[in-house]
Amino acid sequence: MKEELPLVLSLFPGIDLLGRAFEEEGFCVVRGPDVIFGGDIRGWHVPTGRFDGVIGGPPCQCFSRLAHMVRQNGLKPRFGNLIPEFERVAAEGAPSWWLMENVPDAPLPAVPGYAGWSCLLNNRQHGEAQNRVRRWSFGVRGPQPKVLMIDTVALEPVAFERAALGGTDRREIPVKPGGSGKPKTTLPFNAKSQKGFSSICHKQGLPEELDLPGWTVEGKCKAVGNAVPMAMGRALAKAVKEATS
């Protein structure tokens, strides 16, 4: 008899690089609704007991430190706090475990009946150049939390790059010979530039020649820039697999 793969529900998937990392570790991933495909998690329900795990990263705009700049200009982040929707669906689905990703200042999820554990990780801890910090929260059914044993490198890269953004990208380039010798920052890549999209793909651990047919370059930049870096996703997927096997 063929062994059944652990079934995972991916919430707020976007282009779902996190789900892709879990698939590489042997999980079967089912993707929930997402706004980029016209979906809306609010009011969406999931059957109880069908999924072994639930993963996802609710929109982080309202918790990002850049949100203060947005509000200062009289605007509001596009999405409000949707972490309660993650909590609701996880509670409805009643999986064995759940994993949530967000920015460091986001509130920790609380799902009734689950014990949670949380940590901060930088993408550089996985041997990558992109300096990108994210908070990971892991919950298991029962009263006792479980700590994920996440593989990291012994030494982070000395040189690093700024975090990829959903709209533009910035990169470090050496100054001209005879200058201070310190790196300087180029002007932001235009979000409609293919060069900018290739740079974001590189930072996120994807092939620079990646294409998303039918998407505008601006849309591709946002989708890839807002996703979980592949190196970080792989490390978390491996840790969850070891913790739940």
What is the element layout, followed by pairings?
Layout: E1 7-11, H1 17-24, E2 28-31, E3 53-56, H2 67-72, H3 83-93, E4 97-102, E5 114-122, E6 133-141, E7 172-173, E8 184-185, H4 194-203, H5 217-225, H6 230-244
Parallel strand pairs: 1-2, 1-3, 3-4
Antiparallel strand pairs: 4-6, 5-6, 7-8
Helix pairs in contact: 1-6, 4-5
| Cα-to-Cα separation, first versus last residue | 19 Å
pLDDT < 50 stretches: 168-178, 185-190
Determine and state the CATH class of the largest domain. Answer: Alpha Beta
Compute the gyration radius: what is it? 19 Å
Strand order in space, largest sheet: 2-1-3-4-6-5
Helix content: 10-25%
Quote the CATH topology of the largest domain.
Rossmann fold
Largest sheet: 6 strands, mixed
Structural class of the helix and strand makeup?
A: alpha/beta
What does this structure look like?
The protein has 245 residues and is an alpha/beta fold. It folds into two domains: 7-153 and 229-244, Vaccinia Virus protein VP39 (Rossmann fold, 3-Layer(aba) Sandwich), CATH 3.40.50.150; 172-224, no CATH class. The protein contains six helices and eight strands; from the N terminus they run βαββααβββββααα. The protein has helices at 17-24, 67-72, 83-93, 194-203, 217-225, 230-244, and strands spanning 7-11, 28-31, 53-56, 97-102, 114-122, 133-141, 172-173, 184-185. Strands 2-1-3-4-6-5 form a six-stranded mixed sheet, sandwiched between helices. α1 packs across α6 (230-244) and α4 packs parallel to α5 (217-225). The longest helix is centred in the last third of the chain and has 15 residues, at 230-244. 37% of the residues are buried. The model is unreliable at 168-178 and 185-190 (pLDDT under 50).
